[in-house]
Amino acid sequence: MDRYCVFGNPIAHSKSPDIHAAFAVQTGQQLEYTKRLAPVDGFAAAVQAFIAEGGKGANVTVPFKLEAHKLAGALTIRAQAAGAVNTLLFDEHGITGDNTDGAGLVADILVNAGAAIAGRRVLLLGAGGAARGAVLPLLEQRPRELVIANRTVATADALVRQFAALGGEGVLSACGFGDIAGSFDIVVNATSASLQAELPPIAPSVFHPGTLALDMMYGKEPTVFLTFAASHGAVPRDGLGMLVEQAAEAFLGWRGVRPQTAAILETMRQTL
Ligand code: NDP
């Protein structure tokens, strides 16, 4: 049976084995998918050990996404652009690194939330790993404008420069939280502020009635960002759909078939 796993530290909380087990049943694929706790200083060795045991691929989560990017002998375009890898493929060519987080975000917005990105004003809060992975997939949908706002403005400015030649010219701009102008059709919180139950210091005026407000974080309770957004007329959405969709993109890369995600997302929501 083909073997896959997710590497992280910590890893006990990971929902990836449940998601991939459901994908395997739905698509009739024979595979095993487990969690692997890699030592913080032993990620590469853990990957090599898994390959030696016959592993075909792996997901990678905190804190190993940058290390996975370095370890991969080949990178997909979206992994190059993201500067981080969340999916590894092991085959006769060696280790290939991919990044499915941004594609997962876009699939969740378009398919699950039923919102358009083309021609819309999009605000991305944050400029860390998750935000960087989202920029190219968002630009590929041809938004009218994509504004990246970050606490450290220089990091957001660097993303604007990086993506200028990749569809960002005339579309992408950067600013601090206090300088965001106007309201947006979609606001994505890709900061890790929600992990500390904090709200990025944004004005309510970034929302208009019906704005899709998506927090990449997920959990049983809405985040402070989603509560704030909903109280100003936005439609709140957490990051669970993005999680399931990034997994579906990884499954597609490994198995050549993309699972139907709607029912599995619903089941995952019930188990939060
Ligand atoms: P990083 O550590 O790489 O980046 C953190 C970002 O948040 C930076 O832009 C940082 O700003 C900003 N930030 C941190 N604290 C605050 C604060 N108190 N107020 C405002 N801004 C803040 O994290 P990631 O990009 O890896 O992850 C971001 C979030 O996305 C996490 O909540 C993570 O769980 C989630 N995520 C969800 C996924 C899913 O599938 N649903 C997939 C991947 C990530 P600065 O540059 O100034 O430090």
UniProtKB/TrEMBL annotation:
Gene: aroE
Source organism, top-level taxon: Bacteria
Known function: Involved in the biosynthesis of the chorismate, which leads to the biosynthesis of aromatic amino acids. Catalyzes the reversible NADPH linked reduction of 3-dehydroshikimate (DHSA) to yield shikimate (SA).
Active site residues per record: K65
UniProt keyword NADP present: yes
Biological pathway: Metabolic intermediate biosynthesis; chorismate biosynthesis; chorismate from D-erythrose 4-phosphate and phosphoenolpyruvate: step 4/7
Species: Pseudoduganella buxea
UniProt: NADP(+) binding residues: G126, A127, G128, G129, A130, M216, G239
Subunit structure, as described in the record: Homodimer.
NCBIfam families: aroE, PRK00258.1-2
Any GO CC annotation of this UniProt entry: cytosol
Residue span(s) of domain SDH C-terminal: 239-269
Family, similarity comment: Belongs to the shikimate dehydrogenase family.
Catalytic activity, as annotated: shikimate + NADP(+) = 3-dehydroshikimate + NADPH + H(+)
Protein name: Shikimate dehydrogenase (NADP(+))
InterPro entries, per the entry: Aminoacid_DH-like_N_sf, NAD(P)-bd_dom_sf, SDH_C, Shikimate_DH, Shikimate_DH-bd_N, Shikimate_DH_fam, Shikm_DH/Glu-tRNA_Rdtase
Presence of keyword NADP: yes
BP GO annotations: amino acid biosynthetic process; aromatic amino acid family biosynthetic process; chorismate biosynthetic process; shikimate metabolic process
Binding site for shikimate: S14, K15, S16, T61, N86, D101, Y218, Q246
Location of the Shikimate dehydrogenase substrate binding N-terminal domain: 6-88
Keywords, sorted A to Z: Amino-acid biosynthesis, Aromatic amino acid biosynthesis, NADP, Oxidoreductase
GO molecular function: NADP binding; shikimate 3-dehydrogenase (NADP+) activity
Location of the Quinate/shikimate 5-dehydrogenase/glutamyl-tRNA reductase domain: 116-194
Enzyme Commission no: 1.1.1.25
Listed Pfam families: SDH_C, Shikimate_DH, Shikimate_dh_N
